[in-house]
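Entry 14. Ran structure prediction on the chain below.
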Amino acid sequence: MPLNSQHSLPDNWKRRFFTIWTGQAFSLFGSSLVQFALVWWLTQKTGSATILATATLVALLPQIFLSPLAGPLIDRWNRRLVLIFADGLIALFSLGLMVVFLFGREQIWHIYVIMFFRSLGGAFHWPTMQASTSLMVPDAQLSRVAGLNQALHGVMSIIAPPLGALLLSALPMYGIILIDVVTAIIAIIPLFFIAIPQPVKKAVVHQVEGIRAVIKEMVEGFRYVVAWPGMLIILIIAALLNFLLNPAFSLMPLLVTKVYNGTAYHLGLLEAVFGIGVVVGGLALSAWGGFKKRIHTTIMGIVGMGVGVLMIGFTTPDLIWMAVVGMTIVGVMNPLANGPLMAILQSTVDPAMQGRVFTLTASLSSAMSPLSLAIAGPLADKLGIPIWYIAAGSACVLMGACSLLVKPVMHVEDGKTRPEVETPKLAVTNT
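Output, structure tokens:
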């Protein structure tokens, strides 16, 4: 039985959930605009690849190293207050950066600071929102909501860069940052009026405080995953997908120019069709809901992405249309792989453990990015850029096909091997 079905949802769950969801969508929009503007400012100000790489690393650090510590806190604290804190932290530091730009005192290290704290807020925000979704949405609708989330991110990836470029020509930098502050406030307001269901904690949990207690609960989260073979394998698959596919996007400009003999137009076309594919795939998942066993939809998405990446890797300069088709397939299949995977976590992981499991997932996924780039870069320089696409695509297809033969993965939604957690009841809190 899905663990989130152990409590009854109110009849107006759609209004309550989507009011919060809409506010968060506004916040994502503002963050996407500011992220583009900050990267462009660094590019224009320094023209340094080292500066851009450092900014990326600074933004990754909280996700890699602090996410596991954030998990126990998310499971301890009131999740609505955590969302308010995360959005408020981002808004506060954005406001400070806005003032710095307003008075013309901006420095590169200011951008590093804002990126660090925005990432820190995200280390709390994303897993808290996912853990809250599982308690506000019926189990049967989780895949559809995940599809909407995927489509939303696809839309943002399409509209944020051109709109950000347009705003940069029309507004000063502090004006664009102000948009982020306003959208964060829009996200916070509904949280003051709508309660989020909260797992009832054992009394002893509230009596034990301090960093030792947090670390103990973090270790409990690791043990919970390790004791559940199907879930452990799924998290490893998710990490491997990031390891295989992150370099494919990072190497795309070099692939277009050096292998396809293409131009900025071709690069823009490939990025556009990917974004469109993500929107189409997300909306399709939202309408369809996926196969009855969600893991089957995820496996189909993984294999489909592998096929698309293979097409990109085998493309030659005279067959660039094949790369366009391949990139479209990758975009469409991306939500079909990730959406049901997220729904599986929301449906099967004990609500009292979801903060820790989601932050562990985020930490593993974030850690894969610098690791894979460190390997893919030298490998592509030595053996040719297409080799990574061919190897990554083949690995995705093989990994998806082999998953069908792994019983713990195929039965992960049954919950038969799920570790028990002594928090069987849920209550709605209004604090």
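Residues 13-46 form the longest helix (34 residues). Will compare against last week's run tomorrow.
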